[in-house]
Amino acid sequence: MYNPAKMLTKHIVSIFYPSLRFSSLSASTIKTGDILKQARIFSSSDVLEYSKLSHDSNPLHFDIECAQNAGFEDRLVPGMLVASLFPRIIASHFPGAIYVSQSLQFRSPVYIGEEIIGEVEATNIRAIKNKYVAKFKTKCFKQGDHVVMDGEATAILPTLAVEQGQSMG
C-alpha cells in the first residue's frame, strides 16, 4: 500500500544516511539468510535432450547395465544437468540476473525419476552502483535431507525484489 508519509520519511533519511537500507521493511526483498528452493524430477527425455546439447554421451546416462557394472543402482542424471537448477532458481526469482560463478562438489548420484530439491541461500549481498552482487550457498537434496551436490554461486542481481509469485523459504 502506498503511504506518502513513509515515502517522504525514507527520502529524507536517505539524504542524511545514504548507506541506510530499508530492505527489512519488505517481505518480498531478499536478505542474507533467505533460502530459495525449487523441485525437479529429471526424466529420460531430459537426459536425452541434455546429451544432444552438450554432446555428453556417457553410457552411465543411457545404459542400465553399464551403470550397474560401475556400481550404481540405475542410470545417472548428468551432474551438470542437476546443477542447472541453481541458475534456474536465481533467474526465476530475479529476471535479468547475471550468473558469474559456480563451484560444485558432487556428493551422491542422482537417478532418473528421483525428485531433487535445489536450494540457494543468500550468504552475502552488496550493492554496487545500481545492481547487487549476491553470493549463495547452493545445495541439492534427494529423499528429504540427503545432499547430492553443494557449492557456492555468485550472481549480479538487477534488484533485491523477489519476482512476484515466487516464495522464499
From TrEMBL:
SUPFAM superfamilies with a match to the protein in the record: Thioesterase/thiol ester dehydrase-isomerase
Gene Ontology CC terms, in alphabetical order: mitochondrion
Gene Ontology molecular function: any one: (3R)-hydroxyacyl-[acyl-carrier-protein] dehydratase activity
Domain MaoC-like: 39-132
InterPro entries: HotDog_dom_sf, MaoC-like_dom, UPF0336/Enoyl-CoA_hydratase
Biological-process GO terms, alphabetical: fatty acid biosynthetic process
Protein name as annotated: (R)-specific enoyl-CoA hydratase
Source species of the chain: Actinidia chinensis var. chinensis (Chinese soft-hair kiwi)
